[in-house]
Design a protein that fits this description.
heterodimer; A: alpha/beta; Rossmann fold; 2 domains; five-stranded mixed beta sheet; 15 strands; globular; B: alpha/beta; seven-stranded mixed beta sheet; two-stranded antiparallel sheet; 10 helices
Chain lengths: 354, 251
């Protein structure tokens, strides 16, 4: 069995990025993700990598764009308000088909909001965040171990599909400490013949670009990109099911909300309530299929979120409104307690029994 | 005997620039310098948003199209991806470099980022059809300053070379013009130095090129070149604003 070390989520994520071959990190301080930058500032110079504190989140994402264009694994991290600033750059990454990893350790919003944990950037992340028709692969860790593993997966998927990927963590995941094993396999970056690394006078010049003034050409590029997105939906959707097989009530939750929900499921099961949990690991692509399947027997769904109800829309879509979906939430940096989730389960059970 | 030919670093793609626009001249100077230094195979150019947005089609080296104003940040990434081999230049207009991208410009200079910046100052937004630029002169009539730029209402022009020369980081800053043959020759010398500095690892080198925009200035090409001489150069004096290495040698 691999050795485990006790690490903070943000630091495990940073070390995993280095393991994934990332040697370029650009960031700007913002709570609650600054440990990622601090860790990179210490580690990168020792391994011949680049850590650079940019003048803004906008500059940081554009430095990422430059390294990605030059064909290397690269990342930036921030928290909610900073991610809004990166939206422009993320759209350009998507439009130029460039792979990169963006980490959002979410805090409460809108505006400057607060610095406590939140999941209120679900819409922003899963719908793209910037302008134009595009998606990012969005990965939602629910443990420090997953902070590390999904970071590696993020780099791999970004490279495979030539697009930006995001680790969407809530502040809890960034700040909490858990034993973690960093002993896992990493796929090396593939060849990138499209990269702008200099022609060496041996090939035609490469152009990294998102401007296409002929509408027919731009339309075709959008069509082609969405064919790739369909392949991702088919091949890369990830989720975890917990006690869903016989469940009358299904909880939907990711990140810290999934941890809380799992505790509530165990408690409710002790009380004889048939309840289960579906935890999306990829938020885009969203795991519609397990929800649709669960809707064949489940009579009620509860979306547990640290926001005013965002993922709930995908849950409703997934089950084609075949059963009622209620929201169990806290917002603004608050986290629902297992007791609150249990109450929501009991309430739903009352409805189911009648 | 060949007496004149296109630099290898330029493609055969016909340019979209208006008649009398000096972008073509500056593109050619950059391409000649790339040829003369023998660096085409390891050069990566960053195109801006603005009239030169399609510069990626005109240079034979690898090219990247950046978001508006972000070229120095993109260049930073490309340079740091392989500092030993990559030669990186940005080619930006005044709206791109001196308005929306001011922060990226200032901080790339402050870091003495080892890149070359070609800055086209024509005192107007060309691509969008002639709006006021951060470098439009007081009194200058544009689509968005139809009664002339009023400093009381919208402030004064930004003098990039002067401003950046206050930074300890910047290596080399020179303002040139391309309104006559003598000035074009000086412009080429400055551009060559800005690339040579990068090859020598000296750091951030920016050449500001006073350029014409006959279409949006509403002038004939000839009158536009005269306007550079009569209006722009007095406000934006030509010359070297900073040359850290030369200053060191003198000391």
């Amino acid at each position: 069995m691999a050795d485990k070390v006790l690490m903070k989520g943000n630091e495990a994520l940073a070390e995993a990025a280095i393991k994934a071959g990332c040697r370029h990190y650009f960031g700007y301080p913002i709570t609650p993700q600054t440990e990622v930058a601090a860790y990179m500032a210490k580690r990168m110079p020792k391994i011949g990598g680049t850590f650079l504190q940019a003048e803004s989140e906008i500059a940081a994402i554009n430095m990422v764009y430059g390294v990605a264009a030059a064909g290397k694994r690269v990342m930036t991290s921030s928290s909610s308000p900073g991610i809004s600033l990166k939206g422009e750059g993320i759209s350009y990454l998507a439009g130029s088909d460039l792979p990169a990893l963006i980490v959002n350790v979410q805090r409460g919003g809108p505006g400057l909001g607060g610095i406590q944990p939140s999941q209120s950037d679900y819409f922003q992340a899963t719908r793209g965040g910037g302008h134009g028709d595009y998606h990012m692969i969005v990965l939602a860790p629910a443990s420090v171990q997953e902070m590390a593993e999904l970071t590696v997966l993020g780099f791999e998927l970004a490279d495979t599909y030539r697009m930006p990927a995001m680790v969407l963590a809530d502040g809890t995941m960034g700040q909490m400490m858990e034993p973690v094993s960093l002993d896992f396999a990493v796929s090396p970056a593939p060849e990138k013949p499209w990269a702008t690394t200099g022609t060496k006078m041996a090939r035609e010049h490469n152009i990294v670009n998102s401007l296409f003034l002929t509408p027919e050409e731009l339309e075709q590029l959008n069509f082609t990109r969405y064919e790739r997105y369909q392949a991702i939906e088919a091949n890369e959707t990830r989720y975890e099911e917990y006690m869903t097989e016989d469940a009358d009530i299904i909880l939907a939750a990711f990140g810290i909300a999934a941890r809380v929900s799992r505790t509530a499921v165990n408690e409710a099961r002790k009380q004889g309530i048939k309840v289960g949990l579906i935890r999306p690991i990829t938020l885009w692509p969203f795991p519609y299929a397990p929800f649709a399947k669960a809707a064949e027997h489940a009579k009620a769904f509860i979306s547990v979120e640290l926001n005013m109800g965002q993922m709930i829309e995908d849950v409703r879509l997934a089950i084609s409104c075949k059963a009622p979906v209620t929201l169990c939430n806290r917002a603004g940096g608050m986290i629902p307690s297992p007791g609150q989730v249990l109450e929501a389960i009991q309430k739903a059970d009352g409805g189911v029994s009648k | 005997m060949t007496v004149f030919e296109k630099p290898h670093a330029m493609t055969d793609v016909p340019m979209h620039y208006c008649p009398g626009c000096t972008h073509g001249i500056v593109h050619r100077l950059v391409a000649e310098v790339i040829d003369e230094l023998g660096i085409e195979g390891r050069t990566i150019g960053i195109a801006p948003v603005g009239c030169a947005v399609m510069a990626y089609d005109y240079f034979n080296c690898d090219m990247i199209e950046a978001a508006h104003g972000r070229a120095p940040a993109v260049a930073t990434g490309v340079k740091r991806a392989d500092p030993e081999n990559h030669v990186v230049f940005t080619y930006q207009g005044d709206g791109d470099l001196a308005s929306i991208g001011t922060a990226e410009t200032v901080h790339a200079a402050a870091r003495n980022e080892n890149i070359t910046v070609i800055f086209i100052n024509n005192a107007i937004y060309g691509m969008t059809g002639g709006q006021m630029a951060p470098t439009s002169l007081p009194g200058q009539v544009t689509q968005t300053s139809p009664y002339g730029r009023d400093p009381k209402l919208c402030g004064y022009p930004v003098k990039i070379c002067e401003m950046l020369s206050t930074l300890d980081g910047a290596e080399y800053l020179e303002r040139v013009a391309v309104n006559n043959v003598a000035n074009i020759r000086k412009a080429k010398k400055a551009i060559k130095k800005a690339f040579q500095n990068q090859l020598d690892g000296k750091g951030f080198s920016l050449v500001e090129v006073l350029s014409s925009c006959p279409t949006n200035w509403g002038m004939t090409p000839q009158k536009a070149l005269q306007w550079i001489d009569e209006k722009m150069i007095p406000y934006y004096p030509l010359g070297v604003y900073k040359d850290r290495s030369a200053a060191k040698e003198e000391a």
